Amino acid sequence: MPRTYSYSADFDAETEELFKEAIFLGEGHNGIVYELPNDKAIKIFQETKCCKEEGDTLKKVSKSKYFPRVYNMGKYYIVRDKVDGNRLDHYIKKKGFNYEIAEGLYNLIEEFKKLKFTKLDARCRDIYITNDNKVMVIDPKQCYKRKVNYPRHLMKGLEKAGVLESFLEDIRLIDKKVAKDWQKRYNQYLKNREIE
Question: What is the rounded (10 degree) CA torsion for 142, 114, 84, 58?
Answer without folding.
Answer: 50
